[in-house]
Amino acid sequence: MFVAVSRFVIANGMEEAVRAAFVHRPHGVDSAPGFQRMEVLRPMGEPAEFWLMTWWDDEATFDAWHHSHAFKDAHKGMPPGLRLKPGENHITRFERVAE
């Protein structure tokens, strides 16, 4: 199993609009080959910081999704005008070792 963790920080006060976009997301990724599940988290006391965790069969299926048109389409639900804090956004890749 492979887990991708994306961390990003909102730069322009649109935290609640981003939160709502995730709560009401269209679930497009749910039918992607290899996709298992997704969770979106925010650290307590840091409302502008989001952690998006996705579980996949393997790294190849994540990479296929991440480079697809469907990936770009899935992000169309983010609020217009959204800006992310430069240098605070990254994806970390994990191998699941044990349950």
UniProtKB/TrEMBL annotation:
Which superkingdom?
A: Bacteria
List each copy of the ABM domain by range. 2-91
What is the name attached to this protein's record? Antibiotic biosynthesis monooxygenase
Species of origin reads Denitromonas ohlonensis
Cite the entry's keywords alphabetically: Monooxygenase, Oxidoreductase
| Pfam families reported for this sequence | ABM
> Which residue ranges traverse the bilayer?
none
GO MF, one term, reads: monooxygenase activity
